[in-house]
Amino acid sequence: MSEDRLLTVRETAQMLGYSRTQLWRMRKAGQGPAWLRVGRGHIRYSRNDVEAWMERQRRKAARRGGGRPLANPITHPSRSRGDEPANYLRFLMALTPNTDGDSR
C-alpha cells in the first residue's frame, strides 16, 4: 500500500469513480470505505482504508464470477459533469437490444 494520508471527499470520489453525492449516500447507508470526521464536519478517508475497501470489492466481484465491482456513477445527462455523459451513453447502449447479429 502507498503512503497513508487523509483524502478529501472529492479526492476519494475521483479515486473510486463515484460522485461526492454517491459517497454521501454510501456513508448514510453504512457502506463504502471507512471515514472519519475531522474538525467541524469535514469528512476524510484514509488512503489505505480506501485501497483496502477497493481490494475487498474486487475479491467479492471475483467470487461472484467477475463483473465490474467499482462501476462509475450514472446520472441524468442534464446533471452530468466530466466523463459522465459517456457513462450514460454506455448505460443506454447496454439496455438497447443488439440487433446487428453479433454478440456483445
Structure description:
This protein is mainly alpha-helical and 104 residues long. It has one domain (6-95): Multidrug-efflux Transporter Regulator, Chain: A, Domain 2. It has four helices and three strands; from the N terminus they run E-H-H-E-E-H-H. A three-stranded antiparallel sheet has the order 1-3-2. A hairpin with a 3-residue loop joins strand 2 (36-38) and strand 3. The longest helix has 17 residues, at 47-63. The radius of gyration is 16 Å and the shape is globular. Residues 72-80 have low confidence and may be disordered.
Strand content: 5-15%
Look at the structure and give the mean pLDDT.
77
User: Can you write the helix and strand succession as a string?
Assistant: EHHEEHH
Which strand order does the major sheet show? 1-3-2
Largest sheet properties = 3 strands, antiparallel
Assigned CATH architecture = Orthogonal Bundle
Task: Tell me the span between the first and last alpha carbons.
Answer: 36 Å
**Low-pLDDT runs:** 72-80
Helix tally?
Answer: 4
CATH topology: Multidrug-efflux Transporter Regulator, Chain: A, Domain 2
Which descriptor suits the 3D outline?
Answer: globular
The helix-and-strand class reads: mainly alpha
Count of distinct strands: 3
- Total count of domains: 1
How much helix is in the residues? 40-55%
- CATH class term: Mainly Alpha
Rounded radius of gyration (Å): 16 Å
